[in-house]
Design goal:
Blueprint lengths: L2 E4 L9 H7 L3 E3 L2 E4 L5 E6 H10 L3 H10 L6 E5 L3 E4 L1
Antiparallel strand pairs: 1-2, 1-6, 3-4, 4-5
Helix pairs in contact: 2-3
Length: 87
Amino acid sequence: MSTIKIISAPKIDAPEWVRKRFVGTEFSIISEESLNCEPRGYAVSVEAAIHAFKERGTPWVSWWLKDNIPQGQKKFVFPEEICEYRA
């Protein structure tokens, strides 16, 4: 399964300490997607992201995500420019 490593903080509606904790985290991707017909990105399941933060030893980020992502959201899509693709 292909993975991505986040190489710069994503521009998401979250505190800076949460955004910074994404950097260096690796996620298994579920698909490659177009972002509003603009740059491409990589989709990661919310469940996998929460698990990755727990495994990385940053459970407080998992807690923040669980409490702050919209109900029913199943994935995050990270733009290519903040990711390092790993086959």
